[in-house]
Amino acid sequence: MPISRRHAAQGLALGAAGLALAGCTSPLATPTPARAPTAEPSLDALARAKGLRFGSTLGSLGRSSRFHDLPYRELTARECGVLVAENETKWQALRPNPGKAYDFAAADEMFSWARARGMALRGHTLLWLEPKWLPAWVNALNFGATDGETARRVLAEHVSTTCRHFGDSIESWDVVNEAIAPETGELRRNVFSAPLGGVEQIDLCFRLARAHAPQAQLVYNDYMSWGGGNNARHRTGVLKLLTELKRLGTPVQALGIQGHIVARPQASAADATEWRRWLDEIQALDLDLLITEFDVNDKGLPADFAQRDAGVAAVARDWLDVTLAAPRLRRLLCWGLVDQHSWLHGFDPRDDQLPQRPLPYDDQRQPKLLRTAIADALRATPARSA
Ligand code: 9MR
């Protein structure tokens, strides 16, 4: 099911490497491999050298379990210092049926594996506000506009049960995910909007998370990026929401920038300037920043693998250079490491039916130019003070 909404207007830059696209001619050739990962420091080691951490996601649910692809998960352990579950800590996964107990087994298995390898954990997400990502039974609750007490109890049960289960093992929680509609810049509505209010349900979730996960960093996570159109409206809406939360004293501590960027050969010096200014405004609210779900949608690039990989790497480098330069940004997580396991195959396939190549490694687990771009961006970013 394509989610074109998020990709509508992400005009992105191609820097120097992107301009090299024109020279690539071999159809579907694999480009010169990026530097071998084994001879290189891991991405997390490069990140740590600058006071950041690098991480990625793994998932164990469904037919194509990434977690049970053993070479893939060892690659994840080699490159990463932080792990986030792709789906296993979402409300829908933990409690699809209100008549049954919470099921933490899938998340627990992945998290205990990650902790044994010294990885820090991120939780994603306590409230994915849009109705289509809430459990069907939650959407079906009929609170009525005045029954705030019951609505509050449902949210409180979910947030407290989930936070308490994971205790202080989770260093950072995406408390609320994707509350702003990019088409309008306004708050989305869900079953909690009438009885509790739009901003109020978000405020409540953060307060509950603070009470039940006192050690965790509390994050608002969304997919606004640079560029005009929907992205501009989305940025305005997110800034407005965070400003209002701060005014209310909501314990939000950081903005998670998902970073599902889209490769299109468009110049964007103005986009970069505007993005930098917006990141400054967010930090001026006394908020930290994280990149939580980085990948590059290559629908706008040619079929040829060499051209595509060069284009993806160039766009990534441009975006990462600007975004990583934000002084309060200390985490960079990819939404997967190997192309084969990307969500984009199902959600936003290419028009030519060829598989997307959005991640730092190809299906043979060989590093691509995107890995080089990420490594170089980490090398180039200023060091954060301790
Ligand atoms: O990658 C995830 C995919 O496997 C799930 O089917 C989908 C719905 O739960 O969510 C995807 O992850 C999303 C993340 O939770 C929030 N930001 C956007 C991600 C890609 O859609």
Automatic annotation (TrEMBL):
<protein>
    <recommendedName>
        <fullName>Beta-xylanase</fullName>
        <ecNumber>3.2.1.8</ecNumber>
    </recommendedName>
</protein>
<keyword id="KW-0624">Polysaccharide degradation</keyword>
<dbReference type="Pfam" id="PF00331">
    <property type="entry name" value="Glyco_hydro_10"/>
</dbReference>
<keyword id="KW-0732">Signal</keyword>
<comment type="similarity">
    <text>Belongs to the glycosyl hydrolase 10 (cellulase F) family.</text>
</comment>
<feature type="domain" description="GH10">
    <location>
        <begin position="55"/>
        <end position="377"/>
    </location>
</feature>
<keyword id="KW-0858">Xylan degradation</keyword>
<dbReference type="InterPro" id="IPR044846">
    <property type="entry name" value="GH10"/>
</dbReference>
<feature type="signal peptide">
    <location>
        <begin position="1"/>
        <end position="22"/>
    </location>
</feature>
<keyword id="KW-0326">Glycosidase</keyword>
<dbReference type="InterPro" id="IPR017853">
    <property type="entry name" value="GH"/>
</dbReference>
<dbReference type="InterPro" id="IPR001000">
    <property type="entry name" value="GH10_dom"/>
</dbReference>
<dbReference type="InterPro" id="IPR006311">
    <property type="entry name" value="TAT_signal"/>
</dbReference>
<keyword id="KW-0119">Carbohydrate metabolism</keyword>
<keyword id="KW-0378">Hydrolase</keyword>
